[in-house]
Amino acid sequence: MNPQSLLMKKIMQYDFTLKELNLYLDTHPNCRRALAMFQKFRKLREDAVREYNEKFGPITPEQNINAQRWQWVDAPFPWEV
Amino acid sequence: MWQYEKKLQYPVKIKTPNAKLAKVIISQLGGPDGELSASLRYLNQRYVMPYSEVKGLLTDIGTEELAHVEMISAILYQLTKDLTIDEIKESGFDTYFVDHTTGIYPVAASGAPFTATYFQSKGDIITDLHENLAAEQKARTTYDNILRLADDPDVRDSIKFLRQREIVHYQRFGEALRLTTDRLNSRNFYACNPAFDKNCPKKR
After folding, report:
1. Cβ contact, residue pair A59, B7, below 8 Å
2. What is the rounded CA–CA span in Å between residue B2 and residue B66?
3. HSE on the CB side for A79, CA within 13 Å?
4. Contact residues, chain A, for B125 at CB < 8 Å
5. Considering all CA atoms of chain A, what is the largest pairwise distance in Å, rounded to the nearest integer?
6. B9 bridge partner residues
7. How many CB pairs under 8 A join A and B?
């Protein structure tokens, strides 16, 4: 796996963890343990997404930081393998 | 509002096209217990929910279902890529091909186009949550049936992920139903509809 796919895989794993915690917290909004895990993975995700944006481009349109090129349209869409 | 992220919720990487398999998996896009009806069911139901936990849950599961629509569509796209005309004829995919080529269009495996009659939004929290519990189990059964029909390990891997999500959503909807009945009169949960009736009596 190339460095870009590896970092994307990491982001997908963090996002899955956050989504699971999100649904759990919807019905357990006072669970301190889940809240602590959410904070931990939120930070990990934030750092990984920033690294991805700087090295490989945007995951959402507003993350396009390149002033020369609208990179949003460059990377393949996720259904293309 | 929503924002698109250029990634799938879980990877879909299918090496071997298989139009015959696409013909059955398409039911989880446009069929009676598919991901599109799931998403529309929850995102429409959420507005009149009387409890914020349930509004949140319906919003967040309804949003996840949109990501599942995309995963199913990616599976269909990859299963029908680079097919020859002979493969299209032999697989029985020709009946879809004639109307849509290899474009993604929401139909059931039988060919019936997607319809909003596949889901309900009843404006009653107990009724809607029971509909959702049933919907998650029906989708789980459909995924079980797809796993009985699919041999390709690449396809099975993504389908198993989606199947597992049905079970998690069922669990969360069960908790939402408990949160709801905890707030109602335990001698008669149906004494009133907290999404409509004013001064719905609290638990006695």
Report:
1. yes
2. 11
3. 16
4. none
5. 46
6. none
7. 67
- Measure the CA angle with vertex B163, ends B130 and B25; round to 5°: 105
Once rounded to an integer, what is the mean pLDDT over residues B21-43? 98
pTM of the predicted protein model: 0.96
**Angstroms from B117 CA to nearest CA on chain A:** 27
Q: What is the ipTM of this complex?
A: 0.96
Q: Under an 8 A CB cutoff, do B9 and A16 touch?
A: yes
pLDDT greater than 70 at residue B157? yes
Interatomic CA distance for residues B40 and B117, integer angstroms: 11
User: Residues B147, B159: contact at Cβ < 8 Å?
Assistant: yes
Would you list which residues of chain A are within 8 Å, Cβ to Cβ, of chain B?
8-9, 11-12, 15-16, 19-20, 22-24, 26-29, 58-61, 72, 75, 77-79, 81
d(Cα B117, Cα B140) in Å, to the nearest integer?
20
Q: How confident is the model at residue B166 (pLDDT cuts 50, 70, 90)?
A: very high
- Tell me the angle at which helices B52-79 and B153-182 cross, rounded to the nearest 10 degrees: 170
Q: Per-domain residue ranges for chain A? A: 3-73
Which candidate in B3, B5, B181 is best for mutational testing of the A interface (most A CBs within 10 A)? B5
User: Domain limits of chain B?
Assistant: 19-182
CATH code that applies to domain B19-182 = 1.20.1260.10
